[in-house]
Amino acid sequence: MLARETAAPVRPFLDWSVVTDPAQWSADVALVGIQHSEPYAGDPRPNDQARAPDAVRLVSRTFCYGPDQWDFDYGSPLSSVRPARCIDCGNFAWVGGSYDAYAEFITTSLRQLWRRGSQVFVIGGDHGVTIPVLDALEAIGQPVYILHVDAHLDWRADVGGVTRGYSSPLRWASTRRWISGMTQIGMRSTGSARRGEVEDARRYGSRIFTAGEIHAQGMDAVLASIPPAVPVYVTIDADGLDPTEMPGVMAPAPGGVRFDQLAPLLRAVAMRQRIVGLDIVEIAPQFDQANAITAVTAGRLILNALGASWGANGAYRVGRAPAG
Questions:
Q1: Which of 100, 151, 238, 301 is most buried, taking the most CB atoms under 10 A from its CB?
Q2: 115 belongs to a structural domain
Q3: Has residue 4 been placed in a domain?
Q4: What are phi and psi of 282, to 5 degrees?
Q5: pTM for this prediction
C-alpha cells in the first residue's frame, strides 16, 4: 500500500523543521525530495538520482555555514531574508503500488502547498519527477511560465511507451493548459530529441537558447523572453550546467551554462516576479567529486532563488502575508 506520508530525510535541509504529513504542511517556503519517476524498461530501480535529495541535504553546512553568516550572492545573511516558516517535507519515495498512485500523491500534496501560498523547492530524482509537479501547478490559479535549464530538450512524447519519464517533462508541460509558455536554455550536444521534437518545441513557441548563444551573448535575451507579470516555475537539470561545475550527472556534456551566469539570472527573475517553485534534478551522487561540489552547487542555486525572492526587493517579500 502506498504511504500517505513522506519519508523522513537523513538530515533536514538547512536544519529546517521536518514535517512528513502533508495534512500538516503550511509554510512560506517548503522543500521536498522526489526520488522516483516513471521508469524506462531496463533502467535500474531505484536509479542513482534517487539518492540525490539526501545527498544535497547532507552538505547543508557546506553551502550555508549558518543562517547568520553573510551571503555574498544575495547580499545579506539568510536569517535576514528567510521567512518565518520554512519546512523540509521529507522525500516522496515510491515503495510499492502503482506509479499512477504515487504520482497522484505527489501532485495532490503539492497542490495543497501552492493553494496555501508556499514557495516550493524540489530536489530530484531524474527529470521525470518534474511531471507530477507540473500537474500540481494548476493550483497556482493563473498561467505559469517555465524556465528550463538543461543540455537536452526533453520533448519526447514517449520512450518505449513510457510518457512520464525523464525525456518528456517539457513535452508534458506543453500539454497543460495552465502552462503559458517556456524558455529553454543551455541546449548543446545530443540527447533523446530528434528533428521532430525540435520542430514541435519551436512550433509550440518555446524560446530555445543554446549554451553557445548564452556564452556569446549573455543572459539579457533570456530574461527578456520571460513575460514579466506571470509566476515562473524553474526546472534545472544538473547537466545543464558545465560538468566542470556539476560533474555528478549521468549525461555530462561540455560547454554548459556556468553558475556565474545562472545564479544572477535566478536572482533577477526572483526580484521581478514570483518564482513559485524550482526543482533541481538529475544529480547522480556516484559521479560527484569527493567534496560533493555538484550537491553544493545545487544548494547554492536554491539559496540564490530563495534569498532573492524574500530579500528587500524580492517578489515574495512585497505584498505577501505569511502562510497560515
A1: 238
A2: yes
A3: no
A4: 70, 25
A5: 0.96
